[in-house]
């Protein structure tokens, strides 16, 4: 009878999700030490008296997700120490009196998402419950008088997501200890007088997402301890005098997302402790003197997204302690003088997204403590001199996205401590000394502006500027000494700016610069970042760089990287890079360079990487690379280079990697790379037809050579590679070789390890032997995913062209003969299969006895295929590559499949059997040895 008879020491038991329909009384009688019992997600319809008999130590009981409709009297007897009871997500609609009798220690009761209709005295016996959840009970539309009797210690009550339409007087009788009441998502329309009588200890009240249209006077009577009241997302359109009478300890009041259009004077009287008031997203169009009377301690006021047109004098006189004022997204076009005079503790003022038009002199008078002022997108056309006078502590000023066209001297007088300034959009003129009074500014943004160039001395006085952003601007020319006076500048941004010319000395004085960038990089987490010591002028429209333009950027003790990719440069001049002594990498790819003057890079003795790919270079002279004594990587890919005569790379005695791919080279002269310590050389996609026999002499360290996609056809060319004693990787793909001499590839101190021979003219009949030779030489070859029939082991080849007579009779005869052979082979296979009855027979005996016939059939199929191959040599021929290949595949596939089936029966997944015929090899692998090595 007792299911858990031998589990007396068990502490935790879960029988959840088992489709239980009933639990007999006494089932848990022997579980005297059980602490946690989970019965959730079953099909219980009733809890019988005595069900939990014996569970004297249990403190947590889960009965959620059942089919319970009623709770009988004494249903939970036998649970003297339970603390948590979960009855959520059932079908409870009726709870009988004394149903919770015996749960005197219960602290948390969850009755969410049932169909309960409250009756008086339902909760008798739950004297110690601290938290009661009733949310989501669809039938609970009314709170009856004395509905919460018996819950003397209750502190948290959840009545959210119900259908309550009104709160009757006395509904919360007996809940003297309640501190949190959640009633969001109901259908309450009016908060009547003394709605919350009896809740003298309440601290948090949530009434969001109801249908409240009116708050009667004294609706919150007796709520003397409430500190947080949230009435957001309702339908209130008017606040009247004494609306919040009784809330004398209230610190936070949220009235956002309503329809409030009128606030009568003294509406907030009595809220002497209020610190934060949210009135955002309403329909307030005007603020009168006295609107905020009584709010002497208010520090945060949010009036965002209303319809306020005018800020009048004395409106904020009643909130002298205000620290944050949010007025963004209104229709403000007028701010009367001295409107902010009394706000001498304000730190943040947001007036963005308004219609301010002109910032007049002393418009912010009185805001001596403001540190953040946001005026972005406020349709400001003009900023008068002295507009910010008196804002002495301002540190962050945002004037972005305004149609301001000109910044004149003394515009920013009065903000000596300003650290961040944003001025993007429409600015076309910056007068000299425009920022003269801003010695503390560290970050300046002038993006989206119409400046064509920067005037002289425009940044004079900004001695502490560290970040300067000209992104998305019309700047086209960087003049000499453009950044004069910015000795502390660290970061200079030109994102999406089409600069065409950089004059000599453009970056003079930037001794602490860390990066210049035109591109925002993102890391793997999507966070934007910039790379220190990278000077990135990527994809501008630069067509000219004056000699010495980058002077001062290449600090010798730092590794510097210069990116000029994607511009419109035509030539590189001598001394273009003077002053970049510390540069390690220069990238000039994807320009239109067709000329590089002698000694263009002569001062770059630390340069290790140079990219000139994707240009129009035709001729390379040795003098171009004068001075590049440290260069290790040179990329000249995608140019128009026709010749390497004259040993153009002779001075690069540390060059390790050279890329000459996709040029117009037709031949390699003798000693083209003489004495270069090259490790990696790419000459793919040229027009190479021949090499001088000494082309690769003097390159003792070459390890990787790519000469793919050329016109090489002479098999003897490979002998010219013999001087490359350290060559390990060779790419010969997509040339015109008909054969590859593996003996040449095996010569050298370290033999070649990897080769690519795809896309050549190797006949298919010769390819198997070539691949076998490569394997024997332990040279790996690259395989391609080929779908055509002109391939073997994923290596392409040229199928043999055979001739057939016009008549289809020969083809018919061939198919007929093959069909006969295949049928005969099938008979042999069947007889072998039926003849084998003992799977334990010795494997050698099986081979000797049964497979002779099958070998004979394979020989006949091979001879037949050869006859078809050699049939008729008449001039009139048909291309039968597919036909020939199809016949061979049919024969081999058939034999393999049938033979493998028999073989598995015979020897059980362990032995390899090989038949060799001429130069072909058929390998049949069983079990785990089904693949073949490449």
From TrEMBL:
SMART domains: LRR_SD22, LRR_TYP. GO terms for cellular component: plasma membrane. The chain crosses the membrane at residues 882-903. It comes from Pyrocoelia pectoralis. This is Chaoptin. Gene3D superfamilies: Ribonuclease Inhibitor (3.80.10.10). PANTHER family: ANTIGEN BSP, PUTATIVE-RELATED, CHAOPTIN-RELATED. InterPro entries: Leu-rich_rpt (IPR001611), Leu-rich_rpt_typical-subtyp (IPR003591), LRR_dom_sf (IPR032675), LRR_TM_domain-containing (IPR050541).
């Amino acid at each position: 009878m007792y299911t858990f008879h031998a589990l007396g020491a068990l502490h935790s038991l879960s029988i959840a999700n088992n489709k239980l329909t009933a639990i007999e009384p006494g089932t848990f009688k022997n579980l005297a030490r059980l602490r946690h019992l989970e019965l959730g997600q079953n099909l219980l319809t009733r809890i019988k008296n005595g069900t939990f008999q014996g569970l004297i130590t249990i403190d947590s009981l889960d009965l959620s997700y059942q089919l319970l409709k009623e709770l009988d009297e004494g249903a939970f007897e036998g649970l003297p120490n339970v603390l948590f009871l979960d009855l959520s997500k059932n079908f409870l609609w009726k709870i009988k009196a004394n149903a919770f009798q015996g749960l005197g220690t219960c602290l948390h009761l969850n009755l969410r998402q049932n169909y309960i209709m409250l009756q008086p005295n339902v909760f008798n016996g739950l004297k110690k419950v601290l938290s009661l959840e009733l949310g989501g009970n669809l039938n609970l539309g009314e709170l009856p008088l004395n509905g919460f009797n018996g819950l003397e210690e209750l502190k948290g009550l959840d009545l959210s997501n119900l259908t309550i339409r009104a709160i009757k007087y006395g509904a919360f009788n007996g809940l003297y200890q309640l501190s949190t009441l959640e009633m969001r998502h109901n259908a309450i329309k009016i908060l009547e007088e003394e709605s919350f009588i009896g809740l003298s200890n309440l601290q948090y009240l949530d009434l969001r997402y109801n249908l409240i249209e009116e708050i009667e006077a004294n609706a919150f009577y007796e709520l003397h301890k409430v500190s947080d009241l949230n009435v957001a997302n309702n339908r209130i359109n008017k606040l009247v005098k004494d609306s919040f009478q009784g809330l004398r300890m209230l610190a936070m009041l949220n009235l956002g997302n309503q329809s409030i259009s009128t606030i009568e004077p003294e509406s907030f009287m009595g809220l002497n402790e209020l610190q934060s008031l949210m009135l955002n997203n309403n329909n307030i169009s005007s603020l009168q003197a006295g609107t905020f009377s009584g709010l002497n301690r208010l520090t945060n006021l949010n009036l965002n997204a209303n319809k306020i047109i005018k800020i009048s004098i004395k409106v904020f006189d009643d909130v002298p302690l205000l620290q944050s004022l949010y007025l963004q997204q209104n229709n403000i076009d007028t701010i009367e003088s001295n409107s902010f005079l009394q706000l001498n503790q304000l730190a943040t003022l947001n007036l963005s997204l308004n219609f301010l038009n002109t910032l007049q002199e002393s418009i912010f008078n009185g805001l001596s403590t403001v540190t953040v002022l946001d005026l972005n997108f406020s349709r400001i056309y003009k900023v008068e001199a002295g507009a910010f006078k008196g804002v002495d502590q301002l540190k962050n000023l945002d004037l972005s996205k305004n149609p301001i066209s000109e910044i004149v001297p003394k515009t920013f007088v009065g903000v000596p401590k300003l650290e961040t300034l944003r001025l993007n959009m429409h600015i076309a003129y910056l007068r000299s000394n425009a920022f003269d009074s801003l010695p503390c500014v560290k970050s300046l943004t002038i993006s989206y502006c119409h400046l064509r160039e920067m005037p002289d001395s425009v940044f004079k006085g900004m001695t502490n500027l560290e970040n300067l952003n000209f992104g998305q601007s019309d700047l086209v020319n960087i003049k000499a000494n453009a950044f004069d006076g910015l000795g502390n500048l660290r970061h200079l941004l030109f994102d999406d700016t089409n600069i065409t010319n950089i004059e000599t000395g453009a970056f003079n004085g930037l001794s602490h610069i860390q990066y210049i960038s035109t591109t925002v990089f993102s890391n793997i987490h999507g966070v934007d970042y910039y790379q220190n010591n990278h000077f990135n002028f990527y994809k501008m429209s630069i067509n000219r760089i004056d000699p010495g333009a980058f002077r001062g950027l290449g600090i010798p003790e730092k590794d510097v990287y210069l990116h000029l990719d994607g511009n419109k440069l035509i030539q590189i001049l001598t001394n273009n890079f003077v002053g970049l002594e510390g540069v390690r990498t220069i990238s000039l790819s994807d320009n239109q360079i067709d000329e590089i003057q002698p000694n263009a890079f002569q001062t770059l003795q630390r340069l290790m990487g140079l990219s000139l790919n994707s240009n129009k270079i035709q001729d390379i002279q040795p003098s171009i690379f004068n001075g590049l004594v440290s260069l290790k990587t040179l990329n000249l890919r995608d140019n128009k280079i026709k010749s390497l005569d004259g040993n153009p790379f002779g001075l690069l005695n540390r060059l390790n990697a050279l890329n000459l791919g996709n040029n117009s080279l037709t031949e390699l002269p003798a000693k083209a790379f003489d004495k270069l310590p090259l490790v990696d050389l790419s000459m793919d996609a040229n027009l190479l037809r021949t090499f001088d026999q000494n082309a690769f002499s003097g390159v003792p360290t070459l390890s990787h050579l790519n000469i793919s996609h050329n016109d090489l056809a002479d098999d003897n060319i490979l002998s010219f590679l013999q001087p490359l004693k350290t060559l390990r990787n060779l790419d010969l793909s997509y040339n015109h070789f008909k054969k590859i001499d593996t003996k040449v590839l095996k010569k050298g101190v370290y033999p070649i390890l990897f080769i690519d021979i795809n896309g050549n003219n190797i006949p298919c009949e010769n390819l198997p032997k070539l691949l076998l030779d490569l394997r024997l030489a332990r040279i790996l070859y690259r395989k391609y995913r080929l779908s055509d029939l002109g391939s073997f082991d994923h290596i392409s080849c040229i199928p043999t062209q055979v001739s057939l007579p016009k008549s289809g009779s020969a083809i018919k005869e061939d198919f007929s003969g093959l069909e006969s052979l295949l049928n005969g082979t099938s008979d042999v296979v069947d007889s072998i299969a039926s003849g084998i009855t003992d799977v334990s027979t010795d494997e050698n005996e099986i081979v000797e006895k049964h497979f002779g016939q099958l070998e004979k059939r394979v020989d006949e199929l091979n001879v037949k295929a050869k006859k078809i191959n050699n049939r008729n040599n008449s001039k009139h021929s048909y291309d039968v590559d597919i036909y020939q290949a199809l016949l061979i595949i049919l024969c081999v596939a058939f034999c393999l499949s049938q033979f493998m089936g028999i073989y598995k029966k015979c020897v059980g997944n362990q032995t390899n059997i090989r038949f060799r015929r001429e130069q072909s090899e058929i390998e049949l692998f069983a079990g785990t040895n089904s693949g073949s090595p490449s």
